[in-house]
Design goal:
About 5% of the residues lie in helices and about 60% in strands. With about 130 residues, it is mainly beta. It has one domain.
Length: about 130
């Protein structure tokens, strides 16, 4: 388990939604050098920079993953997300706020996988502006 505050990164995220592909990309607004991607499952992909810091989250089949209509994803989405990389596990906890029929509806996404690719232990916090 990660306990040191020194390991925490904080980032602001932006987003792009491709309606035709139903793909939602959430990425940090700071410049970074992409290194690799990790599939948490068939529809959830985390991207990392050269320092093993998570820099983007892509949701394929985003409307299905978040259980909302595709048109709801055309509007800006509020997100608060934390990625914890431990020696053995990588954990993603994300809270999305999506407009559905002009009401803000919370949607949560929680995922955990083994750290089989030996990413450096860290904790990162992300939010939309």
């Amino acid at each position: 388990m990660i306990k040191s505050k020194d390991l925490t990164n904080q980032f602001t995220m932006d987003q792009d939604y491709d309606y035709a592909a139903d793909s939602l990309l959430l990425y940090i607004t700071e410049d970074y050098e992409y290194q690799k991607s990790l599939r948490l499952d068939d529809d959830i992909i985390l991207d990392f920079d050269k320092n093993d810091v998570p820099v983007a989250l892509e949701l394929l089949n985003a409307s299905k993953t978040l259980r909302v209509n595709k048109s709801s994803l055309l509007q800006p989405i509020a997100i608060n997300m934390q990625v914890c990389i431990g020696k053995e596990k990588i954990r993603l906890d994300a809270s999305f706020s999506v407009f559905v029929h002009q009401k803000l509806i919370p949607k949560d996404l929680n995922w955990q996988v083994s750290n089989d690719i030996n990413l450096t232990e860290t904790k990162s916090q992300f939010a939309t502006a």
